[in-house]
Amino acid sequence: MGKILIVVGLVIALIGVLISLGVPLGRLPGDISYRRDNFSFHFPIVTSILLSIILTLIFSFFFRR
Questions:
Q1: In terms of pLDDT, which residue wins out, 37 or 2?
Q2: Element (H, E) at 18
């Protein structure tokens, strides 16, 4: 349980650093954004893929057997 809390804290800190450096999380090239008169749809697919890769690397590093 302790390792999981450390990893979650590091991920939150990393996201905070990225946002403070100006990385447009949620608005990366490749994210789907559709706007019409009174309707808007946003699906951050590239951001989701990038976050998945980063979390996979972090978890594989900490929970290696």
A1: 37
A2: helix 2-20
Helices 45-62 and 2-20, axial angle in degrees (round to 10)? 140
CB atoms within 10 A of CB 36: 7
Q: Which residues contact 22 (CB under 8 A, 6 or more apart)?
A: none
Distance, C-alpha 4 to centroid of its chain: 17
C-alpha dist (Å) from residue 54 to 29, 34, 45: 18, 27, 14
pLDDT in tens, 5-58: 887 888 888 888 888 888 777 777 888 889 999 999 998 888 889 889 988 887
Bridge partners (DSSP) listed for residue 24: none
**How many whole angstroms separate alpha carbon 43 and alpha carbon 31?**
6
